[in-house]
Amino acid sequence: MADKRLRILVAKPGLDGHDRGAKIIARALRDGGFEVIYTGLHQTPEMIAEAAVQEDADAVGLSVLSGAHMTLFPEVMRLLKERGAGDVAVFGGGIIPDEDAAKLKAMGVRQIFTPGASTEDIVKWVRENVAPR
Amino acid sequence: MSSKKKWLETTYRQASERPIRFSTVSDMELDPLYTPDDVSGSYDDAIGNPGEFPYTRGVYGSMYRGRLWTMRQFAGFGLAEDTNARFHFLLGQGQDGLSTAFDMPTLMGYDADHERALGEVGREGVSVSTVYDMATLFNRIPLDKVSTSMTVNCSASILLAMYLVVAERNGIPWDRVGGTIQNDMLKEYIAQKEWICPPRPALRIVTDMIEFCARKVPRWHAVSISGYHIREAGSTAVQELAFTIADGICYVEDAIKRGLSVDDFAQRLSFFWNLHNDFLEEVAKLRAARRLWARIMKDRFGAKNPKSMMLRTHAQTAGASLTAQQPMNNVVRVAIQALAGVLGGVQSLHTNSMDETLALPTEQAVMVALRTQQVIAEETGVTNTIDPFGGSYAVEALTDRMEREASDYIRRIDEMGGMIKAIETGYPQREIAEAAFHFQRQLEQGIKTVVGVNKYSMPEEIPIATLKIDAAIEEKQIQRVRKVKRERNSAAVKAALARVAEVCRSGENLMEPICEAVRHDATVGEVSDIFRAEFGVYTDPGWI
Predict the structure, then answer these.
(1) Which uninterrupted H or E stretch holds B66?
(2) CA B497, CA B197: separation in Å to the nearest integer?
(3) What does the alpha-carbon distance between residue B88 and residue A59 come to, in Å, rounded to a whole number?
(4) What is the pLDDT of residues B367-409, one digit of tens each?
(5) What's the gap in Å between the CA of B320 and the closest CA on chain A?
(6) Which one, of B276, B422, B418, B421, lies nearest residue B337 by Cα?
(7) At what angle do helices B237-257 and B427-444 cross, to 10 degrees?
(8) Chain A CA closest to residue B434
(9) Per-residue CA distances from B97 to B146, B152, B178 (Å)
(10) The whole model's pTM is what?
(11) Phi/psi of residue A8, each to 5°?
(12) What's the distance, Cα to Cα, between the start and end of chain B in Å?
């Protein structure tokens, strides 16, 4: 199983349309050798949890730039657990203040990337921290 | 041999050159020097004087010697009364026009009490679900004296209707109300990605609004054709110019198809550009935009009224250029970007606040941003003479080049059958994503520099104060919306909404029925639901 290509779901929950970052990350992860599924915009937490299960994702990367991260991240986590996929590694990025990032990590979000993070760092983090399920 | 070529092969070749790529932020490579060899065309045809065709040097005869640009800071957060307080603060600080930021649910056509609004109410802008919210938002603001800009697109028809109903309830007739509504749906599919229905019905609603405003609200700009979001999504400056002008062409064509004469509505079309870091590229872009639009309106659409040919524009400094790292540096970026806007001859300007990569801006940060404009206007002296860059070999050559390269894009879009077809195939979307990825790569390879991020970074950031939105406002707004829904005459609302649905099908102008629905307390979400039911829902194709 060690050579199984990791499957990463890149998802845009909520209503904001800022997909520049999500698309760049999706492409960089694909170039980095991962299987990438991009959900497109305006996904509900249910849609994302469902897609993660359907697509057999090893990790879910959430991008939120609307300030609704404290609502949307925990909801995605809860719904993943509900579907028996609580071991999917959830990470994310966006306009997320440090104190919120700390709270999200305490809830089990593995990593939060904020503006200025390089795609190389993100690819490297996934490679080192996400294991096949 | 031209003198430039000779100079390049002798003097310049012997001089040293740093081993870097000399290109703009859009990665347009520049020559070491521009000379008279690089500038073609006669002064009158290619450049012309301010206030005269093709308006390269400015749309007004006296430009800032006659009237400064409108200082218009975009503001909105929380409940309507919170934003109303910020409006009064800004007007008290010498700002002369208002600009409203709505929250994501309002922008996407959902009421605050919709499940999709959860966690988003009042976060990114002000929450407006009912006409009462709109009345609170503009409380004690004279709508016949202050011009208002509303940044809203797929639900624009409803928000404009609410604004007009508030004006009429304040005793102000529609023909005395002045302002702008963004209402540029094409760029939503291309870049900002706020939509309800697919592109074709969305365009029909936009054209309804152009037609309605031309007849009933003559001082209102029914569309603000926006490059801003295209650039924020990662386009180059040329792409921003090209796609925006191509969007404008599409609106003009559709309004003409509706039976309007070009001179009946074109003077109320306005524009909205981004002001990015690359100073000369931005000045050239604004000059090229005016010339390109003037020529298109005259030659392609046969406009006769000079006002139809004048590209009047708002501009905003580039949000995407700001850094979360060392945020104070953003003050400097904003000042330089704003200066490019002024030297590019804009009519209205928003300067971003230094803290906007972290949160919505604090009052103090907004004040620094506004003061930046006031310093440019009243201390730097750049307003004393019109278009001081006119005649600069470099700026004129860049202006020519941007017009040429944008025209190539526009030709390609025409060949595809116009902007709607281009959008449906994902052409502009892919071009922008490609450019965004290219820039990110250049950043990570160190070809491009962002100070404080990939160069001159600091191990420890000094935190700055940020604005916090109270989570309790969401519940408060939900209760307010529910109260309106409980207490109104539900039979009247139902009938008014049925009339909107009927007009969606009949093809008559939608604006009067929407105004009537709003008068009976129909909400943003309810009218949007009619659009969803009648026109269908658009979903993101999710192209990477």
Answers:
(1) helix B63-66
(2) 17
(3) 47
(4) 999 999 999 999 999 999 999 999 999 999 999 999 999 999 9
(5) 10
(6) B276
(7) 170
(8) A24
(9) 6, 17, 10
(10) 0.96
(11) -115, 125
(12) 48
In this predicted structure, what is the pLDDT of residue A67? Answer: 86
B359 touches chain A (CB under 8 A): yes
Residue of A nearest to B432 (CA): A20
B195: distance to nearest CA of chain A, Å?
A: 9
Q: Provide the ipTM.
A: 0.92
Question: Which positions in chain A touch B450 (Cβ < 8 Å)?
Answer: 116
> Nearest chain A Cα to B457, which residue?
A116
Distance, in Å, from the CA atom of B395 to the CA atom of B46, rounded to the nearest integer, reads 13
Q: What is the pLDDT of residues B223-279, one digit of tens each?
A: 999 999 999 999 999 999 999 999 999 999 999 999 999 999 999 999 999 999 999
Cα–Cα distance measured from residue B356 to residue B23, given in angstroms and rounded to the nearest whole number: 27
- Laid out side by side, the sheet with B70-71 consists of B70-71, B348-350, B313-317, B269-275, B223-226
CB contact under 8 A, B104 and A68: yes
**A67 interaction partners in chain B (CB closer than 8 Å):** 120, 123-124, 359-360, 469
The reply to whether A102 touches chain B by the CB within 8 Å rule is no
Tokens of B421: 């077809």
Three-state SS string across B105-146, please? HHHHCCCCCCHHHCCCCCCCCECCCCHHHHHHHCCCCCCCCC
CA of A131 vs chain B CAs: smallest distance (Å) = 24
Residue B380: strand, helix, or coil: coil
What pLDDT does A1 receive? 44
Contact status of B234 with chain A (Cβ, < 8 Å): yes
Please name the residues between 15 and 54 in chain A that touch chain B, using a CB distance below 8 Å.
15-20, 23-24, 26-28, 30, 36, 38-42, 44
φ/ψ (deg, to 5) at B407? -60, -35
